[in-house]
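User: quick one, fold this
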Amino acid sequence: MTTISTVLFDLDNVLCHYDRDAHIAHIAQKAGVTPEEVNNAIWQSGFDADADAGQFDTDTYLNGFKTRIGYPLTRAEWTEGRAQTTAPNHGVLKLAQALRHKTKIAVLTNNTTLVTDHLDAFLPELRPMFGANIYASASLKQRKPFADAYHRCLAQISAVPNETLFIDDSLENVAGARQAGLWGHHFKSAAGLRQALGRHGLV
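Assistant:
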């Protein structure tokens, strides 16, 4: 059995429950437009994905809302919306808390650095557990499922692919991790994750 020395977690809908549709609705209410307009202009257009890949900084990202939906979204409004639509996944956090005494743990999320900059405002449980090992794809200039996203994250935490277990609710991202040389688990529930960790001798 390969020794797993690092467990790398996705954030949204793994370590926390995140309702993106509700966040979009919050932004739409602030802007006085429909959620469909926000979704089409920001997410479906590829603008959000480009931001996640680090193609521009967070100020440019927020300014893009004014250009695309006619409303200058502020950091405070973004953070307020994120806080209202995010809740900790206590079952997974309990597993992560146990793991941190046995292995290195870290987070890799497809997001802009707004998430890591303001994480304590909407998910304060994470920082005491993961410390500085919380990475938004934008800071790595690549997003999952591309191999560079995983490799650049692992380089930051001095970890190696074949001793790293990656956990994500996106099957595409898990497949990308496996192609990059990591072990992968497609997350569906805390119970299923516990079983996967058990197979690696981690719980």
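User: anything notable?
Assistant: Strands lie at 6-9, 16-18, 86-88, 104-109, 134-136, 164-168, 183-186.
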